[in-house]
Amino acid sequence: MRRLRPLTLAALVMLGATLARADDPIAHEYVPGVEADEGTMLVSSGGAAPEALVYDGEVIPAPEGGPMRPGEERAMQAAPGDERATEEVGRRSPSFRPDRVTELNGQVGYFEVFTPTISPFKRVTALDGITLTDRTPVLAIADRGPRREVPVEGAQAQAPDWRPRDLFWGSVVLDFSGGREVPFPSVSPESRLLTVRTEPETRLRFERDGADNFYAIVDEPRGAVSEVRVVFLTDAPRTYFGTELPRTRADALIAEVPQVPASVQRRGEEFAARLNLHRGMPFDVTLSELVRWFRDFEESAEPPRDTGDIYWDLANGQRGVCRHRAYGFVITAQALGIHARFVQNEAHAWVEVHLPENRGWLRIDLGGSPRGLSPHNTDERPRYRPEVPDPLPRPDAYVRAYQEAARLSEDASSSSSGGDEGSSSSGAEGATSTGRGSGGPPQGGAVQAQVEEGTAGRESRAALDLRLDLPSTIEVLRGRTLEVTGTARSADLGIAGLRIEVLLASESSAVERMLGVTVTNEHGAFRGSFGVPPDLAVGDYRLVVRSPGNAQVGPAVAR
Asked: Strands 340-344 and 125-127: what pairing?
């Protein structure tokens, strides 16, 4: 279970707060407490949009706007892709036709739009149907009916079900010069749009189709806009990245699997039988064996023997890169009654599987070539790390590809003085960063902080002077907001980008309740509007405001 880093403090003599009842709680910007949070948290000063996220203990400010940065970004475009091999940057192909080039030639660029980075798993194209074209199984979007609206729900929107969700910033440029709608990237098929800001200000609406491909549609007169930057807050269920596998029947969701052509269904079942798999077996056993087989492919300059059935040749021959593995997996899985999708972007392909028992979709990486991925726009971004370890088999070929990718990444890093790191197409890439956020102006007149003694190895850090602009005793109502302002200074200089934690500590017990986190602005000032949980017991509390410090200043607790 991921938690924010604990702090050991020398003193907790804080401002007093008396909690009273509020009969009619009002809406507020509530930042989840540490007790209930296992991933990302919002940093807000009370406005409609949050200023930053906190992920794995790091403050990540909202992305900057401005024009497209050509060396780091590519715009999403209205024109469709060519439906073959890897997807073209910024485009979505309506179908995928397999090929027999079972090795990666040259470099492929990946352009990240999300923070924390999910490289190389940005969802652009998802295909869940199988059609026959010249007797070749081709993947496509099964449901071409009316699309569903994707509302902008607000930063504090309640989760739609029991699954915890993690938050991500997105920043992408949309090019409407070729049409009124363009593909819109997503983190997961069940992601929501929470906040949206456009530059220039543009009326947009968002939709998704039956395979959960997202679209942005411009609601302006034709020709009124061309390139639009969209800065947005989105989320994804934590179970999408890893979860326990159900033990129900493998075909428990067969009613939602798109119809498979009879000849493809027959060949899929025949191939599955070679793996000793059939409908009615336990879901976890079936999925594990499928993943074991399709992760055990080898990249090869020599394609498998051509029998005239490319699905059979690729699946049985176990040769190919990411797209060949994902293609063979989806056809075999659907033949077994498992709802699976082929997902890709400009650099990588993988699969998604819908889990029974209301567990949602699961992302499954099948690996690929360890060479050739050139990531862009990933510097200075923390990497998203799934909470649950991969529950599926990792055969030797899959592990070797990861190890080779790590070696190539290290070689690329040591031979260059800057720029993007090399990475495998299976996602062995990422960087950490320190975010900067914004806060309110300095507020003056404060309560002196009591500074914790430096821990071992950090004695050289300067003392931090953490001050609050609040009276010594305040009354707080449950369900209402608590405004906290102050400054963080060292040697009379404001400390920017410093994490500030706000808690309520019970006078009658050792229990602390996290209200939220904010961050200092460039002047060292901080300001936060924190919701007081409506279920908190009435009584006397100490308001605890503290900071873990940073590389330059030590931790401090205000009192």
From this structure: antiparallel
